[in-house]
Each structure stands twice: as structure tokens, then as C-alpha cells.
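ok, trying the design again with the full structure, not the truncated one.
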């Protein structure tokens, strides 16, 4: 028989992402709606260990749906990786009367939550929050749509300089292990080439493609490079390579960096966060544990945390083909 849940803890962990606040708001308000108590936990698993909790009600989360970052702060906890740390975390939760956790984060967060459940039989549900969109079991993670819009807006501005000065720009975007941001923002921003870790284009093909576009009359180009791309050691080495092999090109590099993680969430991310928070709370109240809520076929679906961690979020092959056609 599942334990009767009367108080839920909500926390954010790992890299922040736009929409995390909207998800916190949704969890808190869904708890209030179902007459369940809710505590906000600060600084991810570190805050669980230290009992850094704050009782939250529907009004505590006013005016945060539009804010980037996370009002609960985020951290990557080393202590929670130890059995001793997790024991302390369990005591803190029991002392505060917390019966279940909603964790908002990426696969590192879900791994910690799953181990915690296995050791202490503590109910946990995950909400995928990362701009990288690299989580299996959802077509969209929180923050991904906002990051795409940020990147497209930035590349539109870079394009002004590229075309005014007949330059080639390498624009590096985030995505440590995944090319979702690069591929989607690259197509959206009309990039000449898109380099992603899932597809090894190779330096020769890159040069061929750039030569072809020069011959076809293009005077400027944007190449979007995912941070985790394997083609060159880094984006500056790509520049050096093209400088050497195509001296007629005037090449620049622009690394967009953490501006992609910040900012007010898009409408899409706010709505997604609201849906995920409600689904997470109601899943716990149904007595379920160890699931991640996700968006599949525009419905809220549950994926076992284990699968969400181990599964691979595949790149959209149709979009890859569209991108190739667009660059002819
Ligand atoms: O996982 C999200 C992400 O933005 C990655 O794309 C990037 O590699 C990483 O976080 C950067 O992390 P940090 O802010 O810790 O440097």
C-alpha cells in the first residue's frame, strides 16, 4: 500500500533552465489545490541534506512564472553522492514531515533521486529541466524552447555583421552531449552548416560545403557548432583550420555561452512547466514513484526514471535532412 502523502518537497538541481520557476509554482499550487502541504527545498540535494526548507503556499509563488533561473537556487551536490550524505537527507525529510519529492533537473538529478528511492523507499517524481533537451521520454525539456529563441535572436544579430562584412561566423551554442539546440536553432536561423555531436561531418566535408557556397555566390555564412561537436577540438581550432585552407574567407567566432540559460521563459515553457508540475503532484498522490513526467504526442506521459536516465534522446533525422536541403 503506498504511503498517504500529506507533504511534498520540491527542489531544482543541476544547471538552471528557464521554466524552472513556473514548474515550482505549478507544484506548489497543485499541492494547495489538493490540500497537501508543500515545502520548497533550497540548493538542490545540498538543501535536502541540511534541511534548508521553506513552507510554501499558493501565494509564495506569485510573480515567478515569468522569471528565469530558479528561486530555490540550484547546485550539484557532492555530499549527496555519499551514503552518509543521503542518510542525513533522509533524516532531514523525516524530521520535516516531508513524504515525497518532486525533483526538477536533468539526468544527474534523476540518478540521485532514484538511488535515494532505492535506499530509503522514498517516493520521487522527476520533471525534466535542462536547455539541452537531451532527456529520453519527452520531446521537450523545460528551458529548451526559450533557449532556442534566445539563440535564434542572437544569430539574427550576428548575421547583420556577417553580411555587412562578408564574413564567415562560427557560432558555438550549448549542448555538451547533444545537438538539439544547434540543429533546431540552426535551421530556424538559416545557418549554412550545422555541426552536432550526433553526426560527424568531417573537416573535408565542411570545407567542400563552404567552397560550394562561395561558388554559388554566397558572400557570408553562419556555421552553428554544438559545444559537444567532435569535428574539431574546439570552435577556435575550426576557425584556424578554415583560415589556413580558405584564406579568402574572413572568419570570426562567437561563443554564445550562458546567455542561453537565462531570461524570461517562453510561453511554451511556461505552459509545459504548468502541465508538468500538476502531473508530478497528481502522480505522487496516485501512489506512484520513480517516474519522470514528459511531453509525448502533446500529452503528459510517465517514463520510468531508469529509462529516462539510460535512454537516448534521438536527434530528429527529418530535420537533419531538411537542414541539408536548406543549405544547397
Ligand atoms: O546541461 C546544460 C548546460 O548548459 C550544457 O549545455 C553546458 O555544457 C553546461 O550546462 C554548462 O554548465 P556550467 O554552467 O556548470 O558550466
Amino acid at each position: 500500500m503506498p504511503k498517504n502523502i500529506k507533504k511534498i518537497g520540491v527542489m531544482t538541481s543541476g544547471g538552471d533552465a528557464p521554466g524552472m520557476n513556473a514548474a515550482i509554482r505549478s507544484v506548489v499550487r497543485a499541492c494547495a489545490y489538493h490540500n497537501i502541504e508543500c515545502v520548497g527545498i533550497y540548493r538542490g540535494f545540498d538543501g535536502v541534506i541540511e534541511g534548508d526548507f521553506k513552507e510554501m503556499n499558493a501565494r509564495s509563488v506569485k510573480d515567478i512564472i515569468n522569471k528565469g533561473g530558479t528561486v530555490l537556487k540550484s547546485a550539484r551536490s557532492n555530499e549527496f553522492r555519499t551514503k552518509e550524505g543521503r542518510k542525513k537527507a533522509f533524516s532531514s525529510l523525516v524530521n520535516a514531515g516531508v513524504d515525497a519529492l518532486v525533483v526538477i533537473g536533468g539526468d544527474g538529478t534523476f540518478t540521485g533521486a532514484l538511488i535515494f528511492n532505492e535506499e530509503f523507499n522514498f517516493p520521487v517524481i522527476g520533471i525534466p529541466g535542462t536547455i539541452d533537451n537531451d532527456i529520453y521520454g519527452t520531446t521537450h525539456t523545460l528551458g529548451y524552447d526559450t533557449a532556442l529563441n534566445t539563440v535564434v535572436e542572437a544569430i539574427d544579430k550576428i548575421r547583420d555583421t556577417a553580411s555587412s562584412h562578408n564574413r564567415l561566423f562560427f557560432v558555438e551554442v550549448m549542448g555538451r552531449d547533444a545537438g538539439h539546440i544547434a540543429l533546431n536553432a540552426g535551421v530556424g536561423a538559416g545557418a549554412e552548416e550545422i555541426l552536432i555531436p550526433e553526426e560527424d561531418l568531417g573537416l573535408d566535408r565542411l570545407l567542400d560545403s563552404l567552397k560550394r557556397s562561395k561558388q554559388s555566390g554566397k558572400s557570408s555564412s553562419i556555421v552553428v557548432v554544438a559545444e559537444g561537436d567532435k569535428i574539431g577540438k574546439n570552435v577556435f581550432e575550426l576557425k584556424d583550420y578554415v583560415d589556413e585552407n580558405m584564406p579568402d574567407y574572413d572568419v570570426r567566432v562567437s561563443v554564445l555561452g550562458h546567455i542561453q540559460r537565462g531570461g524570461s521563459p517562453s510561453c511554451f515553457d511556461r505552459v509545459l512547466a504548468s502541465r508538468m508540475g500538476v502531473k508530478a503532484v497528481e502522480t505522487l498522490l496516485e501512489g506512484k514513484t520513480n517516474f519522470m513526467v514528459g511531453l509525448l504526442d502533446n500529452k503528459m506521459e510517465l517514463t520510468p526514471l531508469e529509462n529516462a536516465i539510460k535512454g537516448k534522446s534521438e536527434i530528429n533525422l527529418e530535420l537533419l535532412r531538411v537542414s541539408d536541403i536548406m543549405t544547397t
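Keeping the full-length input from now on. The chain has two domains: 7-143+265-310, 144-261.
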